[in-house]
Amino acid sequence: MEAYFWSFVVALMIFALGGAASVWQGLHNLAAPAPIERPWINLVVIGFAMAAEGSSFAVAIKELNKIRADTPLLTSIRRSKDPNIFAVIVEDGAALVGLVLALAGVSASAFLGLIWADGAASIAIGLLLVLVAAFLANETRSLLTAEAAAPRVVARIRDVLETDPRVAEIPEVLTAHLGPQEILVGLTLRLQDSLSRQELEAALDELIARIRQTDPRITRVFMRPTAASSGGPPAAIRPHAMAK
């Protein structure tokens, strides 16, 4: 959870404050525009920054591609539970767009005589940072409140349960991310009445083991078994749990 917390802090502090500062600077430049002296220094700095940010962005995209399969990029970012990946992609992507805006502003101001362009670019960069801050804050907020696992993870869990003849019904499947690599699973199951207590115990242990094999991030599985006929928990069977 600490990874989610600090990602939330980054979104609020760096991007929100940075965006506000950039907008303020842009408004100041528009109120009293001045020509840029030695623009080549600005261009060299922007060029180095684009190379660095582009390299980091490419590495982050490569890591995301390992897990996103054919899912669209934006959907994969929204579904990702690891801020070490999605936050870097969003931050570096925003930085590259901001650098392009800065390049356009400096070039227009220095070479086209549009001295207001630098201030306008600063405002555009600030608004971009504010939008990125809002996006990241919303994504990490949902993770901080124990967001459910991805649909494909839940589908694998249900597949394990539905293909087991000892399971009569699956009233409830709950999941929650406790961290980027840690998923908690809570289940309510109705099992066949014909199973003895020993068979029920064995079935629960086997199901827990098989569920954990569907995804290495599943570290805790809690089961509440009930009888198929009664709909309530049998007296001899207590809820099962398996911890990391």
Task: Explain this structure.
The protein is of the alpha+beta class. The protein has two domains: 2-144, no CATH class; 151-242, 2-Layer Sandwich (Alpha-Beta Plaits). The protein is 63% helix and 15% strand. The protein has seven helices and four strands. A four-stranded mixed sheet has the order 1-2-3-4. Strand 2, helix 7 (197-214) and strand 3 form a beta-alpha-beta unit. Helix 2 (39-68) packs antiparallel against helix 4, helix 4 runs antiparallel to helix 5 and helix 6 (151-162) runs antiparallel to helix 7. The chain is elongated. Residues 231-244 have low confidence and may be disordered.
What's the SSE blueprint?
Blueprint: H1 2-31, H2 39-68, H3 73-79, H4 83-111, H5 117-144, H6 151-162, E1 167-179, E2 182-191, H7 197-214, E3 218-227, E4 240-242
Helix pairs in contact: 1-5, 2-4, 4-5, 6-7
The percent range for strand residues is 5-15%
Q: What is Rg?
A: 26 Å
Number of domains: 2
* Uncertain spans: 231-244
Tell me the total number of β-strands: 4
Mean pLDDT: 83
The largest sheet, given as strand count, sense and whether it forms a barrel, is: 4 strands, mixed
List the secondary-structure elements in sequence, H or E. Answer: HHHHHHEEHEE
Broad structural category: alpha+beta
* Silhouette: elongated
How far do the termini sit from each other? 16 Å
Helix content: 55-70%
Largest beta sheet: strand ordering: 1-2-3-4
